[in-house]
Structures are given as structure tokens and as C-alpha cells.
Amino acid sequence: MARSAVARKRNIECRTKVKTGCATCRTRKIKCDENKPFCQKCVNTGRSCDGYESPFRFVTNSAHGSDLKSDVTLQPEIATEDIDLLNHCFSTKTLFDVKLACDEEARQVLQASLTDPPIRHAVLSLRALREDLETSGDGPASPAQLTPSYHYGLQQYSMALGALASNLSSPSSNGLKSALLCCQILISIEQVRKNYAAMAQHIVHGLSIMHQYRARPGFVTANKLVPTQHDQLPSLDIFIIKLFAAPCKFAEPLVTTDVSGTMLPACLVSSHQQPRDLRTIAPDMRTELTRIAASTLEFLEKVSQVKSVGVALQLLSEKAALLNSLESWFINLELVQTKIGYPSTEPISVSFLRFFHLILKIVLLGALDSSPDLYTELRTEHDRLQSVANNVGERVKTYITCSGTSSGQGKRSTVR
């Protein structure tokens, strides 16, 4: 009997530990049933399942040898495939094989997620919601049809927002960096959820943080240039511009598509509207706005590196020219609208162009300027951006409803 007890004890001691369970069960040191996305043991006992190992893998740089003490201080190296995966999740445009130029942004986010809970929760949320979009299409027709992945994504989203609010209660350089990196993911999450009103709110809040805490040098008076207040804050504005400037490429749809790259479902296209007119006019509008966006990215890079008042004054002239180009573009858009003569509402693709135009204008207005008068002007543009976003969000909901998601016709018909 004693020998049998010793043998059982030896077997228990030699048994290989299982490392694939959820984080909650592993902390409690109990066997996990490994149901995804929630462990049923946690659910049945009323606990919050903290999920499984991140879908993004990290590799440690072994170039410094095998000294365990030195490995502790090393920054883990982010795997290239994980950077590609997060880059792919950033925008719904990638559903149609569009390539984003956000590798560096993805690397920064993944690096920070190793030690920053809000960012880690946000990354897990984006991944779960993106997987749900790719498998379920435009989404369920009712809350009762929400998938476990969608529920898990919302849970992680809520945890990210809670942790982020805690960090921002007493902002520091690290807290601001966390907020801006997290904001990138939250913008992407709301795009996946087609909640453009909330997406606009994240954009406005993130850009406000950049401006309030002076992510770049700027003038406080006519000839007084002040340096960056917080070094190396993430450039959220550049990330947003990249998302909107990325080309729209879609598979041949069953509904009308204008060449600006956005699908126009039948329920949003009037019988009086002539796609031929859109094809001959709208491409120039999209192309010109993208050109201004590219010039804006170059301008922001120069602003980040400015050191002298003389160079900054030259950049103010460049800023004025870009704002004039945006104003000319907007006037031309109105002329195009008049020429085409939409009988009721404009195509949703044009609304997205308006949204992009306002983002560029807000970014440019805030560059190199910290004057008190600026806040009034920015508030007006923020309100306009929110109004356009609200309109787009409501029309997208109408699109999803009339395209018949329950029959599968709306699958992957993302209007971006």
C-alpha cells in the first residue's frame, strides 16, 4: 500500500504541466476545459475568463548569448508574421488584399502589449472581432445571433477602455504613449464593428491628446517656437491618414461600385443616379485627395524634425498651401455634386471622402499651432467630423439591413 502511494506521488510529480489552458485556470492551478473563447469552468463559476495565449507570438533575440540574467533586460523581438497579422487587422480594406503601410505602427503596438494591459486587451479584442467579421460577414441580424468570438472581443474591449481610463487619470509620458497606441487599435475596432460615430470620437480624442501634450514642436506666439513636450509620442495622425489613404480594391460585387473604391448597395443608389457620371468624375476627386494626403504625411515628417524658427516659418507657408488645396478640393466636390444632381442623398463613398477631407483639415490646422484661437476652430471641425460620422454610421446600418445579411448576401460587403 505504501509503495503504491509513493508511485502515485512520483507519477504526479513527473507529469508534464499543461500550459494551454486559459489564464484564469492556470492562475487557479486547475485543469481547464479549453473551450474558446471562454472556458466553461470560468463561466459556470461566475468568473471572468482572461482568455488564452495571445494569437501574436513573440520571440526573444538570442544574439546576446544564453545568459539568463541579461535576457531579463532585453526587449523581445516581435515576429515578422505577427506584425503582418496585426497590420492586416488594422483596416477592413485588407479583406480585399489591400496592403497597409503600417508595419512600424504594428510593431510598436505589439511591443507595448507585452507590458501594457490596455493595449494587450485592445489587441485581443481587435483580433477576435476581426475573426468574427471574416467568418460571419456583416454581422448578426439580432443580438441573439452574436457569436462567442464577438462576445469575447467586446469583453476585451471593455477591459481595455477601463484600464486606459485608469492610466489617463494622471497622465505621464508612458501613459500618453499607451493612450495613443491604444487609440490606434480602438479606431480599427470600431471600423470592424462599423460604428463610425465611435470611431470619430476615438480619432478626435487621440488627435486632441497629441495637440494638448504637444507631440510635435509648435508656435505659441508669432515667432516663439516651443519644442516637443513629450518625446517619442506615437504619431496617431499619420496612422489615421494611412488608413484612409490606402487604396480601395474590391472583388467584383453584385452591386454598383464607383471607382473611388467604395461599394454602393442597391438600396443606396437612386434609379436617377448615373454610375457613368461617377466613373468619369469621382476618380479625380479620390486621386487628388490621396495626393494631398501624401503631401501631408511629408509635411508632418518635416514638422517633427524642425529645430529653428526660420524653418518653421517656411513650413507654415507649406501648411497654408495644403489647406488651400483642401479647400479647392472641397469646392470641386460641391461642383461635382451639383453636376451629377443627386435626387436625395449622396453616395456613401462621397461621405467617406468628406470624412477623410475633415481628418486632413483637422490634422493640418493643429500642426505648428498652439494659439488659443485654434481651439475654437478645431472644435467646429470636430463637430463636423462627428456629424459626417454619425450620418455614415446610420447609412451603413441601413445598408446592412437592406442587403440581407441573414441570407448571406451581405457577407464581406464592407463599405470602405
Automatic annotation (TrEMBL):
Taxon lineage: Eukaryota, Fungi, Dikarya, Ascomycota, Pezizomycotina
Gene3D superfamilies according to UniProt: Zn(2)-C6 fungal-type DNA-binding domain
InterPro entries, A to Z: Transcr_Regulatory_Proteins (IPR052360), Zn2-C6_fun-type_DNA-bd_sf (IPR036864), Zn2Cys6_DnaBD (IPR001138)
Domain Zn(2)-C6 fungal-type span(s) in chain numbering: 21-49
Protein name: Zn(2)-C6 fungal-type domain-containing protein
UniProt KW Nucleus keyword: yes
Gene Ontology molecular function: any one: DNA-binding transcription factor activity, RNA polymerase II-specific
Signal peptide: none
SMART domains on file: GAL4 (SM00066)
Keyword DNA-binding: yes
Pfam hit, one: Zn_clus
Keywords for this protein: DNA-binding, Metal-binding, Nucleus, Transcription, Transcription regulation, Zinc
Stored CDD domains: GAL4
